[in-house]
Structures are given as structure tokens and as C-alpha cells.
Amino acid sequence: MDDAYTVGDPDGLSPLLREIRDAVARELHAQLALRAEHLDLADVPEVAYQVTLGVDRVLTGRLTPPRRTSAGR
Fold first, then answer.
1. Would you say 54 and 30 are in contact if contact means Cβ atoms under 8 Å apart?
2. Whole-number percent of the chain with pLDDT over 70
3. Quick one: which of 9, 19, 30, 38 has the fewest CB in 10 Å?
4. CA 11 distance to own-chain centroid
5. Distance CA 8, CA 21 (A)
6. Which of helix, strand or coil describes residue 12?
7. What's the pLDDT score for residue 70?
């Protein structure tokens, strides 16, 4: 049992896991809105990619991934 249950957190998730859950939910909501609340099987890889970017933003604290430039090599 996670300590979160003993300190009154009803979902039992750590703050980081709550942020990840929320990022996934936001991205799924956005993707469903873009696709008229319907996902085709062919859409799953793109949706998974967008969810992964959202989780990466949570884990790294960045709003956008850094862009590579020739000067940055």
C-alpha cells in the first residue's frame, strides 16, 4: 500500500503520477475533440505520440522540446 492512502490522498497517486495522469487525460480529450470524438485504429500511433510528448513535458518541465540548430552541435 502506498503512503498516499494514509495521508488522505483518495486516488493514492504521487504528485508526479497525478501530473502524468492529467497530461494524458488532457491530450486524449484534445485528440478526441479534433477527431469528432472518434478514433480510428489508424489514428492510434499519432495519438500515442502526442500523449508521449505530453508526458515528456511533465517529466522535463519544458513547454516545447528544444530545436536542434547547426550552431548547437
1. no
2. 70
3. 38
4. 18
5. 19
6. coil
7. 65
The residue written with cell numbers 500511433 in the block is: 45
| Cα atoms in the Cβ-side hemisphere of radius 13 Å centred on 45 | 1
Q: Is residue 12 over pLDDT 90?
A: no
pTM of the predicted model as reported, rounded to 2 decimal places: 0.66
Distance CA 49, CA 4 (A): 30
Question: How many Å apart are CA 28 and CA 52, to the nearest integer?
Answer: 11
d(CA 27, CA 52) in angstroms, rounded, equals 9
Tell me: the pLDDT tens digits for 38-59?
Answer: 999 999 999 999 999 999 999 9
pLDDT beyond 60 at 26: yes
Backbone region of residue 8 per phi and psi (left: phi > 0; alpha: psi in -120 to 50; beta: other values) = left
Cβ atoms of 47 and 28 closer than 8 Å:
yes
What's the CA gap between 55 and 47, in Å, rounded?
12
